[in-house]
Amino acid sequence: MDQARVIVSFGADSIIETADGQLHRALTRRRTGRAIAGDRVDWGGQPPHQVVIERIQPRRNTLVRTNYRGQERPLAANLDQLVVVCAPQPAPDQRLVDRYLVLATSLNVDPVVVINKSDRLDDHDASAVQAALAGAHARACPIHTVSCATGDGLEALTAALADRTSLLVGQSGVGKSSLINALVPDRQARTQAISEASGQGRHTTTETTLYPLPGGGDLVDSPGVRILRLAHLSRDVIESGFPDIAPYADACEFRDCEHDREPGCAVRAAVDQGRIDAGRVASLQELLAERNAG
Ligand SMILES: Nc1nc2c(ncn2[C@@H]2O[C@H](COP(=O)(O)OP(=O)(O)OP(=O)(O)O)[C@@H](O)[C@H]2O)c(=O)[nH]1
Ligand SMILES: [Mg+2]
Ligand SMILES: [Zn+2]
């Protein structure tokens, strides 16, 4: 059986890249289950027609989107790294950054932060960005400052992405698409080739798509993770996304302490003493409350 990588999936149909670098439209059988971007699969058939995915190899991890009804839909598999993109404009949102850091923990992948638009970063903006990144500092996560406009920092970022599958996340307007355009020089041709293989026109760009990087590794662009619901995560997973707070939380009098006004709350005490960032605690409380609400 030959092996391939899933580039993008539309339900029962996927586009796979075979070992020779060709893109083919492939069908999954009902019993095989649905393939998603990043899957490694065994395939058979006679390209370009009747290509069939025979088996989806076990996934190291699965990025899942949960909708407002709590229904889960898998989007991408086998990720190594989560790239959290922020910029001076739109102003960074600490709660969102902290959510992405918890997402990285839940997937068991390393977070990397990119501060884009360095060409627009004055001192005032820089301190606002750093404040929103308190969680990244607490987790000693690598931070790359880049500009898609000038090319500043892109070489070092390329090195950090080499040979790994990285998911790009971040607020609308921070420059995720600009980064893909800067890092994947043949993106246009690639999108065209995907459209041709799928026979579905421009539809593909709205789906979670894997882009191979010329220096090795892949970037995953997933419009589906913009609204990030983490209500399905356990308290333990959420708390392990906050290593700066966890030692204090362990010392709270109540195991289910919400770090609000409970007596014997070691987290509140640590905030009052300036030992931990109040914004981080607010992020943790928000995630715990969401989870409790079901
Ligand atoms: N000055 C400057 N502008 C940039 C840079 N990178 C991107 N932009 C601009 O920022 C705007 C948003 O960039 P996009 O790449 O579309 O942002 P995005 O994150 O893909 O946004 P969504 O697709 O809505 O999630 C565009 O007008 C870009 O030209 C940069 O390094 N410097
Ligand atoms: Mg975009
Ligand atoms: Zn507490």
UniProtKB/TrEMBL annotation:
Main location: cytoplasm
GO molecular function: GTP binding; GTPase activity; metal ion binding; rRNA binding
PROSITE patterns referenced in this protein's UniProt entry, alphabetically: ENGC_GTPASE, G_CP
Pfam family for this entry, one: RsgA_GTPase
A GO CC annotation given for this chain: cytoplasm
Top-tier EC class: hydrolase
InterPro entries, sorted: G_CP_dom, NA-bd_OB-fold, P-loop_NTPase, Ribosome_biogen_GTPase_RsgA, RsgA_GTPase_dom
Residues annotated as domain EngC GTPase: 77-226
Residues bound to Zn(2+): C252, C257, H259, C265
Domain CP-type G: 68-228
Residue sites binding GTP per the record: N116, K117, S118, D119, G170, Q171, S172, G173, V174, G175, K176, S177, S178
Keywords, in A-Z order: Cytoplasm, GTP-binding, Hydrolase, Metal-binding, Nucleotide-binding, Ribosome biogenesis, RNA-binding, rRNA-binding, Zinc
Example GO biological process: ribosomal small subunit biogenesis
Location relative to the cell: Cytoplasm
Known EC number: 3.6.1.-
Textual note on the cofactor: Binds 1 zinc ion per subunit.
Matches recorded under PANTHER family: SMALL RIBOSOMAL SUBUNIT BIOGENESIS GTPASE RSGA (PTHR32120), SMALL RIBOSOMAL SUBUNIT BIOGENESIS GTPASE RSGA 1, MITOCHONDRIAL-RELATED (PTHR32120:SF11)
Quaternary organization: Monomer. Associates with 30S ribosomal subunit, binds 16S rRNA.
Similarity comment: Belongs to the TRAFAC class YlqF/YawG GTPase family. RsgA subfamily.
Function: One of several proteins that assist in the late maturation steps of the functional core of the 30S ribosomal subunit. Helps release RbfA from mature subunits. May play a role in the assembly of ribosomal proteins into the subunit. Circularly permuted GTPase that catalyzes slow GTP hydrolysis, GTPase activity is stimulated by the 30S ribosomal subunit.
Annotated protein name in UniProt: Small ribosomal subunit biogenesis GTPase RsgA
Organism: Aquisalimonas asiatica
Source species taxonomy: Bacteria, Pseudomonadati, Pseudomonadota, Gammaproteobacteria, Chromatiales
